[in-house]
Structure formats: C-alpha cells, structure tokens
Amino acid sequence: MLQYSIGAANKNIMLMIWIFILAGAFAQSAKDIGAIDATVNLTLLLLPDNLLLAGIFLAACFISLSIGTSVGTIVALAPVVAGIAEKTDMNLAFMTAIVVGGAFFGDNLSFISDTTIAATRTQGCAMRDKFRVNFMIALPAALVVLGYYIFRGTDVMTTHDIQSVEWVKVLPYLVVLGTAIAGMNVALVLILGIAATGMIGLLTGSISLFDWLSSMGTGITGMGELIIITLMAGGMLELIRFNGGVDYIILKLTKHISSKRGAELCIAALVSIANFCTANNTIAIITVGPLANDIATRYKVDKRKSASILDTFSCVIQGIIPYGAQMLIAAKLASLSPLSIIEYLYYPATIGVFALLSILLRYPRRYS
User: Fold this and answer.
1) Residue among 101, 73, 24 at smallest CA distance from 347
2) Is cis: bond before 364, omega within 30 of 0?
3) Is residue 308 within 8 Å of residue 134, measured between CB atoms?
4) CA distance 74 to 200
5) Cα–Cα distance for residue pair 290/326, rounded to 1 Å
6) 310 in the Ramachandran plot: left (φ > 0), alpha (ψ -120 to 50) or beta?
7) Which of 206, 239, 256, 268 could serve as a FRET partner for 179 with CA atoms 20 to 30 Å apart?
8) Bigger pLDDT: 94 or 62?
C-alpha cells in the first residue's frame, strides 16, 4: 500500500492533476461565457467545409510544434472541435482524434518538447541533428494523414447556420494560444486563460462574478473521475516498477541483439514497454535512455538515430494508450470514452509504421 501511494503521489502525477483542474475550470468557464461558440463560428467562417478536417489537423500540428506540448494543444483545441463536430454532424471521436494526432506531431518534433530534450540529452546529440532524422520520418507520415483528411473532407458540410462571430469572446482562446506559443508553462497559460474568461464574461455581461466562480467549480468537479483514474494508474504502474517488471523485460530484450538493426529494434521495444508501464513518454525516455545509449555505442548505432527512435516510439505509444494524460484529458473535454477515440488515431499509427520501416529499411540512409 505504501509503494502504491508513492506512485500515486509522484510529482509528474501531481503536475498532471493540477493541469486537469485548471483545464476543467478553463473549459467550463469558456463554454459558459460563449467563448467556445464564438471560436467555433470563427473557425467555420474562415475554413471552407472541404478543408475543415485538414485545417484542424494543421492547426494542431502547428500549435504543438510551437509550444512543445501535446497536452496544451489538446486543452486548447478539443472543446472547439467538439463544437465543430456538433455543427457539421461529424463523428465526435473522429474529430477529437484529429486534434490528438496533430498534437503528437509537434510533441515529437518541437525543440522545446520535454521528449526532445530528454532524448537528445540521454543520447548525447544535438537537437537540430535529432530533428533532421525525425523530420524525415514524421513529415511523410503527416503528409499521408493530411492527404486522407483532405479526401475525407469532401463529404463535410455545415449543417447549422453560422451565427455572427462575437469577436471579443474569442479573446480567451487567443490568450491561451498566444501565451502557449510564446513558451509559457501550461499551468500559467491556463491560469491566464481562466482570468481572460472572467474579464470578458463580466465586461460583456455574459456571466456574473458568482456564476463565473460556480462555473469554474463545476469544471473542476467534472474532472474528479479523471483525477481518480490518474492516481490509481500512477500507483499501479509504480507497483509494476517496484516489483521488477520493467527490469525483467529489459533484461530479456537485451539478450537477443545481434546486429545494428536488432539494436535499433531493441531500443524501440524498450522505450515502448517503458511507456506502457509509466504512461509518460518523457519518463519512459529518461528511464531507458542510458541503456539505449549503451546499446547504441556497442552496436555502432548513430546517436541521432537512437534519439529519434526513443522520441518517436514513446510518442506513438503515448498517443494510443487510453490511460495516458493526453487521451484522458481529450476524452474528458469531449465527453467521450478514451477507447472510442483510439480507433481514429491515424497519425500515431501511421508514424509508428513509418518509424518501424525506417529501422527495417535502414532509412534515412545517412543516419543508418
């Protein structure tokens, strides 16, 4: 019980919970002052129906690349996408998955992403070099998925009349996006967003002070189940680690390496399994990074390639597990089950295939 509690009280779990609390307060207060409806109407006004899906994917890719965090991207876009899905009669789980996929594009590539920093530091290579390898794998995968969204978008039609845009109510989302792109911490971004919803709501008469406080309370309460699940997952995963489950798997995997290709596959398997067990891609990289570095040195694997493998496969797994922070918060903001989103996660699956092919086919050749 003690070890379970230690896992639940892990500092990364606590940080996730604070983000959930702030995200719940922001999402509900933004909804109640009309910020989400205003942002949805603006999006539908600016983007033609046939490019709506591709536009959402590109927006998620750009924002996540700029801010270096998938969680921040999902918090900003998931409520907006839920409103768009309602006005276009599109499958909500499908639309939410577009945001989650795009969020991991930037999480994997961004220079300021935790995963990029962890991967390059543990492998001892420069960020720009790791980016070059990653980009050659991620870009083709993103283009394939983007092409699908363009094709799928030909069937999209707005089924509700677009009301006039209340521009001032779009400001809370602009504050969130602007401060995030400027590089602020996710928690601070959400605090500023909450303050913006209160100011705009009070100035426009959309909400009273006490109603705004009640709205934040409702949003935080709505995150209760998500917080409990996160605490339980943290405790369970710590029990697995404490009882040697991760070490056992690592020992078994490293016994069967006989070539450079095998070494790269082993690094991919190690970080994937670590991510399954920790539900945190940064922690997974930090956990197996030193061992991956030793394997890369022993079998003469290019450190730029090993860093790319660590980052890419950790993001692939983090993008598809239903108990990861990104999936849980996306599901909560869209009022869905995480399992309903997984089947539509085309980008994480596609980049996983491309990353595996890059190992088997020795691509990019220069780094293989």
Assistant:
1) 101
2) yes
3) yes
4) 22
5) 26
6) alpha
7) 206
8) 94
pLDDT digits (tens, 9 = 90+) for 253-279: 667 777 888 889 989 998 998 888 878
The confidence score (pLDDT) of residue 48 equals 79
Q: What is the pLDDT of residue 315?
A: 92
Report how far apart, in Å, the C-alpha atoms of 34 and of each of 68, 74, 198, 249, 366 are: 28, 19, 12, 50, 52
Q: How many other CB atoms are found less than 10 A from the CB of residue 11?
A: 7
Which tokens sit at 43?
């999006």
**At 212, which helix (H) or strand (E)?**
helix 209-222
Across the range 118-132, mean pLDDT stands at 84
Could you write out the three-class secondary structure of 261-273?
Answer: HHHHHHHHHHHHH
Q: Which residue has the higher pLDDT, 230 or 334?
A: 334
d(CA 43, CA 104): 22
Q: How many CA atoms lie within 13 A of 245 on its CB side?
A: 14
Q: Give the C-alpha separation, 288 to 307, whole Å.
A: 11
**Which region holds residue 94: left if phi is over 0, alpha if psi is between -120 and 50, else beta?**
alpha
> Rounded to whole angstroms, how far apart are CA atoms 280 and 328?
12
Closest CA relative to residue 77, chosen from 324, 199, 66: 66
Given the structure tokens 């401060």, which residue do they identify?
A: 179
Distance between CA atoms of residues 344 and 88, nearest Å: 18
Packing angle, helices 281-298 and 303-320, rounded to 10: 150
Strand locations in the chain (E): none
At 3, the amino acid letter reads: Q
